Amino acid sequence: MKIPISVLVLIYKSNRDVLLIERADRKGFWQSVTGSLDAPDENLELAATREVFEETGIAVNQLPEDALQNMHHQIEYEIYPEWRFRYGPGVTRNTEHWFALQVPDNIQIMLSPREHVAYEWLPFELAANKCFSPSNGDAILKWFSRK
Predict the structure, then answer these.
(1) What does the pLDDT read at residue 115?
(2) Largest CA distance in the chain
(3) Cβ–Cβ contacts within 10 Å for residue 70, how many?
(4) How far apart are CA 79 and CA 97, in angstroms?
(5) Which of 32, 42, 46, 47 is deepest in the core (most CB within 10 A)?
């Protein structure tokens, strides 16, 4: 069963283009990297690093030390009913912690085909609008509003 604590990692380049990936299980559902913790006490930064590697092939530990930034923001949201079977009985809400990761402009993306089928880089405003999850769009806009 999944743990109802997750990370969201928006990945961006120096030109402020944001990476979006399309879910394999829902055509047209574009998002940033997301994933649940493997254990309730898993370090959030380690979970973000793991999810980035699993979903994009990007090794955060090979980037500059400050490339991954904890946004120190979390939200709680209702889990979509069609995905609740992944959680324990009665679990309907998830707490998501936001991160941002700046990557080199020439970074190579290697998707996990089990999870995602396509990716694209978009200017941050367009990326925010394309996300199926309003909170994912909010995370993108929040990050770039402070830059």
Answers:
(1) 92
(2) 44
(3) 13
(4) 15
(5) 32
The pLDDT > 70 percentage for the chain reads 99
Measuring CA to CA, which residue among 40, 41, 147, 72 is closest to residue 102? 147
DSSP-H helix ranges across the chain: 44-56, 124-130, 134-145
Q: Which of 123, 96, 76 is nearest to 33 (CA)?
A: 96
Task: Classify 62 as helix, strand or coil.
Answer: helix
Please tell me the distance from the alpha carbon of residue 9 to that of residue 21, in angstroms, as a whole number.
12
Regions in the chain scoring below 50 on pLDDT: none
Q: How many CA atoms lie within 13 Å of 12's alpha carbon, on the beta-carbon side?
A: 25
Q: With DSSP H G I counted as helix, E B as strand and the rest as coil, what are the percentages for the chain, rounded to 5?
A: 30, 35, 35
**12 strand-pairing partners:** 18, 102
